[in-house]
Amino acid sequence: MKKSKADIEKEVLKTMQSLDGLEPAKTKPFFYTRLEAKLDKEQSQKRGVLAFLFEPQLALSAVALLLLITVNIVSVNTYLQSEEDTSTGTELTTGYDDYLMDVPVLYTENGE
C-alpha cells in the first residue's frame, strides 16, 4: 500500500514532536577528549604498514631519486651514442681520398 503525502507528513510531525521532550544526554568529564583519542588511534591503525610511503619527506626523496636515475640513464645513453659515433667515424671518411687532388710540389726537401 502506498501512503499518501499527508499520512507521511503526519508521521514525520509525530516523530519530531516526540523528540521535543528529550533532554541532552549527560556525559562524563573529558568524554569528547577520550573519544577523539580513540578515533585518532583507529585512524592511525587503518593507515597500516604502507602509511610511511605517503609522508612528504619520503615522496620528495623518491622524486629526487627518480630524477637522478633518469638523468644518469640519459647521460650514459648519450655517452654510449657518442662512443658509437666515434668508432664509426672512420667509415665516414673512406670516401675522403676520392676528393683529394694531386697538387704538384713546388719545392723539395733539400731546399732547392
Structure write-up:
There is one protein chain. With 112 residues, this protein is mostly helical. The chain has a domain of 27 residues. Helix content is 60%, strand content 0%. The protein has four helices and no strands. It is elongated and about 130 Å long. The model has no long low-confidence stretch (mean pLDDT 79).
Distance between the termini: 130 Å
The whole-angstrom Rg is 43 Å
The average pLDDT value, as a whole number, equals: 79
Shape: elongated
Number of strands: 0
Coarse structural class: mainly alpha
Q: H/E series, N to C?
A: HHHH
Sheet having the most strands: none
List unreliable stretches of 5+ residues: none
Any descriptors?
112 residues; mainly alpha; 60% helix; 0% strand
Summarize the structure.
The protein has helices at residues 5-18, 31-47, 56-87, 89-92. By secondary structure, it is mainly alpha-helical.
Structural topology:
Layout lengths: L4 H14 L12 H17 L8 H32 L1 H4 L20
